[in-house]
Amino acid sequence: MDLHELRIFSRVAALGSFTQAAEQLGLTKSRVSAAVQRLELQLGTRLLQRTTRQVRLSTDGAQFLARCEELLADAEQLQAMFQGAASGLRGRLRIDLPNALARDLIIPRLPEFLAAHPLLEIGISTSDQRVDLVHEGFDCVLRIGPLAATELIARPLGEMAMCNLASPAYLARHGRPRSLEDLAQHHLVHYAGKLGMQGAGWEYQDGQQTRLHPMRSAIVVNGTDAYQAACVAGLGLIQAPQRGAQLLLDQGLLVAVLPEFTAPPMPVSLLYPHRRQLPARVTACLNWITEVVTPHLAGATGTAQ
User: Fold this and answer.
1) What is the pLDDT of residues 31-52, one digit of tens each?
2) Of 110, 183, 248, 271, which residue is least crowded by CB atoms under 10 Å?
3) Which residue has the higher pLDDT, 181 or 281?
4) Average model confidence (pLDDT) for the chain?
5) Are residues 153 and 176 in the same domain?
């Protein structure tokens, strides 16, 4: 049984699309389709149910996929055992990173990782929007913020302390807030995953509870760069991770306000698929990202595994 065809089938199953699988694998759609058809012929069963609108696993296909992914991971482990130290890790890695952490921490250190593993090819997505790790074919993602219920494995790395910010020009026009009641005279730059979402408010810790103080907002953004830029432009107050804003604070473009009413720290986590055995290149990447990021976090908990 051809391992390459197993990889193609695994990707089609994960994406539910021959077209998307072909794009990710750098193959033609006809070649992807032919590979799956050959597998089905060898096994004597239909692995995928195809309609004009969707591709989904058959009952036999679901059972085969679980064993297929184990076999692919085992094959990669076996190959790595006999690749001598000189050859090192090889293959492709796809990772998704928050824009600020990619720019400030991870990409500046990437040359050393590639120098240690020159046969690796790395694809990096930088987005503030959450990707579907399995559906979009990522090996791991780094996320800031609370995690929703997921079947993925999460490695907690630590927390990012938060701060409240405003531009000097904004404070000159509206005054410096000194209490929650003062916020009635101010505007908030609202950060939302989807534009148009309601519920702008000032988040703060009250003992063990997190509370939301309603505020007016004149602008909604869905990216961290736009969030900071709107604050610098004097469009309102923001609540952001201290580390990501430190340069703007040092330059005097932003100043801290209401330090006694800050939002709770933001957890930082690495997520990766639930597999019996991770490919060696993925394990190496997870451990390297952990090593790079945790020294910059409060309450760092990430450890190499």
Assistant:
1) 999 999 999 999 999 999 888 7
2) 110
3) 181
4) 86
5) no
Distance CA 67, CA 51 (A): 25
Please check whether residue 305 lies inside any domain of the structure. Answer: no
Q: Which two tokens stand for residue 278?
A: 């991770």
Angle at 38 between CA 32 and CA 42, to 5 degrees: 150
- Residues sharing a CB contact under 8 Å with residue 87, sequence separation 6 or more, in sequence order: 119
Cα radius of gyration (the chain): 23
Q: Are residues 255 and 178 in the same domain?
A: yes
Q: Residue 260 is part of which domain span? A: 162-264
Ramachandran region, residue 197 (left: φ > 0; alpha: ψ -120 to 50; beta: rest): beta
If DSSP states are collapsed to H, E and C, what string results for 163-217?
A: EEEECHHHHHHHCCCCCCHHHHHCEEEEECCCCCCCCCEEEEEECCEEEEEECEE
Task: Give the model's pLDDT for residue 224.
Answer: 87
Q: Report residue 122's pLDDT band, with 50, 70 and 90 as the boundaries.
A: very high
Q: What is the 3-state secondary structure (H, E, C) of 71-90?
A: HHHHHHHHHHHCCCCCCCCE
